[in-house]
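Quick one:
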Amino acid sequence: MYDPGFAGIIQKSYICPMIRKFIIPCLLLLAACGDSHSFKKADDAQDAGREFIRASLDGNYERANFYMFADSTNQMLLSKWRKDYDRLDHEDQKKYRDADILPINIQTVNDSVTIYTYANTYKKDTTTIKVVRINGTWLVDLKEILNPKK
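Output:
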């Protein structure tokens, strides 16, 4: 009769259960987590504006950043928005999360630029953002805030 020896014992009694109970679930978990930070590319300017606004109202600045044109000025402005949001008490943050977006004016300037003016149901302040198409992707450009129309 064949005796597999020590290698056979390890293979049958230790490695296989360990793979089934630990390594395979870990691999599945890693695969599932791999897409946790992926966001859907905006289909059009209104979609990009709405996704950015919703993310900023929710305090989800990773998602807001995904829908924003990433230059140094925009990064600075978004960082300021984040700091201001983080300073709010939890009740105000909840009110922003519960707020609806109130589009006031969405003006298509050309095939690559749309001006999106909105408010929200919590704070009625009007904000204007520019949504631009860069390399086929619609992104928010916050610099419009720095140049308000007179």
